[in-house]
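Handover notes (outgoing to incoming on-call)

Open items:
1. POMP protein: sequence verified, structure written out, both below. Nothing else pending on this one.
2. Nothing else urgent.
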Amino acid sequence: NSRGTASLLKDSIPFTDVSASGLFEGHDLLRRGFTSVKNELLPSHPLELTEKNFQLNQDKTNFATLRNIQGIHAPLKLQMEFRAVKQVQRLPFLHSSNMAMDILRGNDECIGFEDILNDPSQSEVMGEPHMMMEHKLGLL
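POMP protein structure tokens:
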């Protein structure tokens, strides 16, 4: 009985997921670039961690201030709006300016480093649209 043997093997042998995002996935140079073990272990500068978490720390400070001034409802409402804006996205191969998020954070009138040097036409991460959609949907 081949059906009984297959069920016995399935129950007795642990099976790991072998999908593209599973245990045996190779490093994708086109999407993630070259890796460096030194960069993954230690930050290159003492202020690097502070700069990486700058927006998160600023949001926490703004929420605490808003809570002290207006009550608990104000930061909760703002967090729900942030979550709603993050869910609405363009297709993965199209550049998004995240204008709604900038408006919620008050950055819409500021000109920053990323506004000048983040030109989507010079981006190196543009890939094949079909492959990027399949990766996002988990089909690849």
